[in-house]
Amino acid sequence: MKVAYHSPLPPERSGIADYSALLLPELRRHVEVEVARGGRRRAPRGTDVALYHVGNDPEAHGWILEALRRRPGVVVLHEYVLHHLVAGMTLARRDVAQYLAAMEREAGLPGRLLALGVVDGCIPPLWETRPEDFALAGIVLDAATGLIVHSRYVEERAREAGYEGPVWRIPHPAWPRPDVGAGAPVEGDPVIACLGHLNPSKRVPQLLEAFARVREARPQARLVLAGAVAPRLDLDARLRRLGLDGDPSVVREGYVDEARLWQLLDACDVCVSLRSPTMGETSGIALRALSLGRPLVVSDVGWFAELPDEAALKVRPGEREVEELAAALDRLAASPEERARMGEAARAHAEREHALPRVAELYAAALEEAAGGRAVADAVLAEVAGAAAEVGIEPGSAEAAELGARVREARIGD
Amino acid sequence: MRVAVCSPQVPFARGGAEFLAERLTQELRELGHDADLVTVPFKWYPGTRVLSQALLWRLLDLDEADGRPIDLVVGTKFPSYVVRHPNKVVWLVHQFRQAYELDRTELGQFGDAPEDRATRRAIHRLDRQALGEARRLFAISSNVAGRLRRTTELDAEVLLPPPQELPYRCETYGDFVLSVNRLDRAKRIDLLLEAAAAREALRCVIVGDGPDRERLEGIARAHGLDGRVRFAGRVDEAELASLYGRCLAVFYAPYDEDFGIVPYEAFMAEKPVITTHDAGGPLDVVADRRTGLVCEPRAEAVAEACAYLLAHPDEARAWGSAGREVAQRLSWRDAAERIVDAGSGA
After folding, report:
1. SS3 of chain B
2. Is the Cβ pair A412, B55 closer than 8 Å?
3. What ipTM was assigned to the predicted interfaces of this complex?
């Protein structure tokens, strides 16, 4: 069986390119894979099923969405909110009609009117202000013969949007733990890390406030902030207001490469990975922390909320967020034993759920079911229906309903 | 308690799984339960037939029989455990191995076409559903339990089935190595023949019949083993017990076997067992230099093991005797009670 594989790949720099680079060698142990060349809209010939990795970046995924619309197939929905992708493929190409149609499909006439407001410049772009309210995933769901998702959250949102095809929930694979090596040390008790692109949706303002409270009682605590800073975050001003500007308790590094990222995660006692609003995404940083056996503090939303309680403390976004976050950090700071216990649970969870061979096997199962499942179900059902008809069971009868129920229980045709 | 023991039946074929289901039913009756054996013919080819035949089990109504409720159903071998019942216990003999570890081997059934691949996956889904709804899962060996864990992420307790009750005895430690097995390639009886070719002192008796017999006899002829290797074919219980009683040791080295009753039979006759590291189920009881010899799956290694026992009959006796203690620990009474306890929520 042969799969046409559509995804951004290195040297492109994106989480999905890294994901595919990790997955592909292991997937090839199960199925034959032909990687579609980037930018090509037509799927490779002679393949039994096409797979499309879809994310929200129009530069990286525009060609993939176009290929999907030419040849429907299995979509890996890395995040549910695709407003930015759709806007990039419509408005950015002066295709206003398609954008209006997508918004109307999503939210009816009010959606269309809002879209007109955006087009006319009356309201700011929705993909920047309210993307979570207008996911615009319909354009992908319409063409998907099956969905691969990483969380129950995304599966539920797809179902709420009316998607009726098969959905396979497959965990994001964990990166193998690298040889971390020695880097610039970070001393502290405890060391709390928040890594990756720093922006308001990662709840950095709330984290800073919570850390300022923790530090009052625990002067040895350190907060490592490493990653590019979004301009609208205004990090320096926030640190000044909290009296953390130039304070040794906040350790700042800019964009860090993969090696340094692992070093910092290895050096930390607690990894903070917050999100609100969520776009239905997973967090590569949180996954790396799980692999290293670091306890997590996460937002109680989306994929993050589905992490095991034994490995992650969860904080609800909203009014009491800073208070809850400070309490969680303080609790972990106070107890090395609890950190060790949670770290062990994190490592076990990564090994059990996110192991690369397991993920590749689940992918192979999904792709094989997508390619041949319908034909198999049809053959079995035809045989059952034929036998039923021969003994006089009429379609629509109670006996036929009973047969149908038993077939469903056996998960034939799922 | 009213218990239905479920077992598929391949018409005109009979093996260990059938014996297990019948013997369990008998033991349940002896314990005072109202037990009966339920069988449905099974054919697993071509194409998707394996699924439609499995579905037959799902269509059975075993909630009650003749107006009286059935309290417990016991599934055994695929697809009997697909049966639907609120109180189902499974004593897993094996899953449909062609969809698992035999896939893409010469013993497999499914090709690379999308329909074949999807049929295999549908069997996986069916297994997860049918086995997942059981109140308790037992497996006949660590090997079967391990496979279940790897393929469905379900856990089963190992419950080893005892051997059949032949008039086992130890008469002597003779000059021949005995093989008791169906003659097919997976049983690797050619390893023993090649070993005999390498050691002139080695004599063998091969009990059993099967599709590989002609090839095996050809190997024996090619090596000039006439007179040292005897193909006994199928033998009756009395002769089998006699052969066990007179042999030096028993060779049993199938590839990745689910369970393997032969080592237990050998032990009941106080005979050590020669097996290989990759034999699967037999390794639950054949411990190297304690109840037999465990060697590499190579003819030369098998030859060395046989030669060692020929040269050391005292160790053959000691290991056979230790094996008997292992085999005697298994009892049908205990197995039946554990299954009933599981079905009673104990």
Report:
1. CEEEEEEEECCCCCCHHHHHHHHHHHHHHHCCCEEEEEEEECCCCCCCHHHHHHHHHHHCCCCEECCEECCEEEECCCCHHHCCCCCEEEEECCCCHHHCCCCCCCCCCCCCCHHHHHHHHHHHHHHHHHHHCCCEEEECCHHHHHHHHHHHCCCCEECCCCCCCCCCCCCCCCCEEEEECCCCHHHCHHHHHHHHHHCCCCEEEEECCCCCHHHHHHHHHHCCCECCEEEEECCCHHHHHHHHHHCCEEECCCCCECCCCHHHHHHHCCCCEEEECCCEHHHHCCCECCCEEEECCCHHHHHHHHHHHHHCHHHHHHHHHHHHHHHHCCCHHHHHHHHHHHHCCC
2. yes
3. 0.85
